[in-house]
Amino acid sequence: TTSTGGESPPSANSNIVSAIESKITTGRSKKDAGDAAFKRGDVKGALRSYHEAVMYLSGVDRQVIANAKNIFDTGAPAALSDESKGEGKTEVDLILEKVYANMSACHIKQEKWKRALETADKALAKNPKNSKALFRKGKALGEMGLFVKAETALMEVKKISPAEEAIVDAEIARLRAVDNERQRAADKKMRG
């Protein structure tokens, strides 16, 4: 007998779901390894583990998970579910959000401001209310000399997480001092 339009044998369905679960498990363990390396002060090792986590998880998006579940449950791919339209978050989204925010912290430690900003933005794309990622974005913007944007991002952190107000105020004060020093140096250079 031949199989009809798009149906897969049950063993193929379970293999697909098993492969997805394996990727998620491996991605999670790579993230945990990155966290441990960061705590030990091994920033390069942490970044390596975080990059590996992203590689394992980047192809496992909501559409893939929804289709695999639908194939497994019904034998045929279905249209996007509510969860896969962005109304819910998958475990992959949550892990990637944390990985990107942590990568931003690593780049800040290395004073790679542009990379810190890029990875903070990727975390914020997963969750715009991630106060750690937003704080790191503000710090990176400030270090890049974009004080107005930095202050805007940092003020948003205070709205999202009022408990972090003292830390945010200290960072704004530090960035203002840096900006004032840059301005004085520029003025001095202009005067010759």
Automatic annotation (TrEMBL):
Record's keyword terms, sorted: TPR repeat
Gene3D superfamilies linked: Tetratricopeptide repeat domain
InterPro entries given in the database record: FKBP4/5/8-like, TPR-like_helical_dom_sf, TPR_rpt
Any one GO biological process: negative regulation of apoptotic process
Pfam families from the UniProt entry: TPR_19
GO cellular component, one term: membrane
TPR repeats: 97-130
UniProt-listed SMART domains: TPR
GO molecular function: protein folding chaperone
Domain of life, source organism: Eukaryota
Protein name: TPR-like protein
Lineage: Eukaryota, Fungi, Dikarya, Basidiomycota, Agaricomycotina
